Amino acid sequence: MAVLNRFAGARAPANFYSSMFNYYALWKAFSSSSLSSEVDLKSTLLSRSSSSRPDLPMDRNVQWVFLGCPGVGKGTYASRLSSLLGVPHIATGDLVREELSSSGPLASQLAEIVSQGKLVSDEIIFDLLSKRLRASEAKGESGFILDGFPRTIRQAEILEGVTDIDLVVNLKLREEALLAKCLGRRICSECGGNYNITCIDIKDKEGRPELYMAPLLPPPNCASKLITRSDDTEAVVKERLRIYKETSQPVEDFYRKRGKLLEFDLPGGIPESWPKLLQALNLEDLNHKQSAAA
Questions:
Q1: Dist. CA 158–CA 145, nearest whole Å
Q2: Which of 77, 244, 255, 273 is the most buried (most CB within 10 A)?
């Protein structure tokens, strides 16, 4: 159960998902045309979509975005908030991995991109996202927490043209901890559970504890079935972090100027960070309090 705050809305417009993928369809149709510049493309899409876009009602579910470096824990905290607030958690990283494991038309193209630590193109991301949004619409879902999107200014501008984002949470963690977290990630090949075998214990120059993150170990039935993601090598992780730094600053500035960016430095692992994140969001997890008191 959650106590909502000024960041939270109430109910999402029922046709948001249709608006999103209709807007994308326009973008895709024009992206291969002979428009002279990105500015022309954007202005054409905005003018075409605005006439058919209904005003967004005040009564709707939250529409949040989670930003942060690869491996920072966006999925962990976004999924917890998704359960707490009763809105879908839509992670572009999961969409990419699902496509990779399928025999879909994008699988081979994505495999090459991911193995090199490069960013997936806007066109592919919108293909995957529009498919996911159509599924959400069919289920009658409303509101969302987007995880890993937008990653570029172009994506942010397109999203801005479709709907109003209430809040953008930017999770931050020092790079040495990020690298260790990424290299320690493991997945159960049977159930798909995500775990981390690394214990991060960073001390200051005087040897005092500065950052501690306990490992997230699997249950006994998963311990022998752990596998490493193919893209979790040191070279690939460092390249992903480098690319993210180059592209993230403009996106952060985009939302900072609009007064929607909440920067949150992770103080440690889930036991330390989750209560503080809830406090920063002015939310309350009654189930967490009850289990902590038990």
A1: 17
A2: 77
Provide the 8-state DSSP code for 33: S
Dihedral (Cα; 150, 155, 158, 161), 10-degree rounding: 30
* pTM of the predicted model as reported, rounded to 2 decimal places: 0.72
In the block, tokens 């209904």 appear at 54
Q: What is the pLDDT of residue 288?
A: 56
3-class DSSP state for residue 157? Answer: helix
Per-residue CA distances from 103 to 100, 112, 121, 190 (Å): 8, 15, 19, 19
Complete domains list, the chain, with CATH: 16-173+235-293 (3.40.50.300), 185-227 (no CATH)
Task: Note whether 204 and 176 are within 8 A (CB).
Answer: no
CA–CA distance, 186 with 32 (Å, rounded to integer): 40
* AA identity, residue 254: F
Which residues 6+ apart lie within 8 Å of 193 measured at CB?
A: 187, 218, 222
Q: What are phi and psi of 144, to 5 degrees?
A: -170, 160
User: What distance lies between CA 41 and its chain's CA centroid?
Assistant: 26
Tokens of 168: 């953008």
pLDDT at 37: 31
Where would I find the beta strands (DSSP E) of 52-199? 63-68, 89-91, 144-147, 167-172, 185-188, 194-196
Q: What pLDDT does residue 196 have?
A: 92
List, run by run, the mean pLDDT of 10-residue segments along the chain (294 residues). 47 49 49 38 35 42 92 91 92 85 80 78 83 81 88 88 90 93 92 91 89 93 92 88 88 96 94 95 70 45
